[in-house]
Amino acid sequence: MGAGFNGSDFIGLELLIQCDSCGSTQPVNRPEQKTKCSNCLAQATVDAEAWRVALTTCVDDIGKRGRGVMKGDALSRAGRNVEWERGPDRPRCAKCDGATSVEGDDAYVCDDCGERATVEPVPDFLRAACSDVIGFVCQAETASADKPKKIGMTCNGCGASLTTMGETRTVECDHCHTANLLPDDVWRALHPAKKRQRFWLLCRLSPDVRRVPRSLGRESITTLAMVAFVAGFVSLFLGGITGSIVLGKNKLNGDEFLPYAFRYFVVIWGIVALLVARSWFVGRRIIKHEYEVVGRLGPFTKGRSKVELFEPGKSGARIGAANVPVSEARHQELGGEGGVIRAWALPNRKKAICQAKPSGLA
Questions:
Q1: What is the model's pLDDT at position 206?
Q2: Domain at 289-358, CATH class
Q3: Are strands 340-345 and 352-358 parallel, antiparallel or unpaired?
Q4: What's the predicted TM-score (pTM) here?
Q5: Is it the case that residue 21 has pLDDT exceeding 50?
Q6: How confident is the model at residue 145 (pLDDT cuts 50, 70, 90)?
């Protein structure tokens, strides 16, 4: 049961920059340092600092949110603003548009038709910005914006016919030498705005976010702290009451109170310790790679979510259900209802454990 993990995964990225010359917002649809501004035709620059910050947030996202859940971020500087949305996501198959899986550090394969595609190696400047990025995949550009077009117009000075291919915003008349400014609608027809397109970065996971955890998660630590807090007060309370009854007093002094409180403290904490040890040993017995299954979130209800358990790679093979404590915000980060989280189930299905963390299984 379960599948191996090769230590790398994709992050989807949509990037917008501010043109150095005219200040307009322009999309960057592949890993590059410069892109042509469709507004003024100047070269807009994505500097090294922008790439470093954007890529660092991308790599940090792996293991924090469900697949396809995008998050926005920005780097605001005078005249050089950069905005991006990123999140765990994988490119679709170019042949059948099916979901894909990572295959090593240089390829991905379609889960439906088996079509294999190659991951492009990252350029040196990208590797320098973030060494954990090892490849990328881009969609085919949809821009006919760079195709030259001829447009006819009339000179504002002498009425002569003019033609332009839009190399510049002004066209000089050969007859009267009047400088004619291209109207906005004509300029946009010659240079349609580029559409923002998502591309994908293949990132090396260090450490592997799907490693077998050492504990049952932060939720268990929080629960233990609450139990310890309550147990301490109960110990003192029961010790005081018992001592008063035994000694026939309404109030105990310090020398009388502490022995009775200590006895109950030891008993209650002994019970707590046994429960914690049992939970830890049971958890360690279940949380193993060979027992990992697919956990699909149900609707969020009062700090919890039901989780349907499925065999890996067999979305219709339901094997059971469990519950996971989760906040509403975390539930949305993990993809909401239907989001896939980490889960383990023993072969007899009598024991199951879920963690509110994204899973690499599907």
A1: 57
A2: mainly beta
A3: antiparallel
A4: 0.62
A5: yes
A6: very low
Task: Enumerate long-range contacts of 319-322, CB under 8 Å, 24 or more apart.
Answer: 319/293, 319/345, 319/349, 320/345, 320/349, 320/352, 321/352, 322/295, 322/352, 322/353, 322/354
Mean pLDDT, range 151-178, rounded to an integer: 84
Greater confidence (106 vs 209) lies with 106
* Residue 97 to residue 313: CA distance in whole angstroms: 18
- Domain boundaries defined on the chain: 8-141+197-204, 151-190, 218-286, 289-358
CB crowding 326-359: b at 16 or more within 10 Å, else e? beeebbbbbbeeebbbbbbbeeeeebbbbbbbbb
Contact (Cβ atoms closer than 8 angstroms) between residue 290 and residue 346: no
φ/ψ of 148, rounded to 5, equals: -70, 135
* Tally of CB atoms within 10 A around 155: 19
Q: How far is residue 307's CA from residue 343's CA, in Å, rounded to a whole number?
A: 9
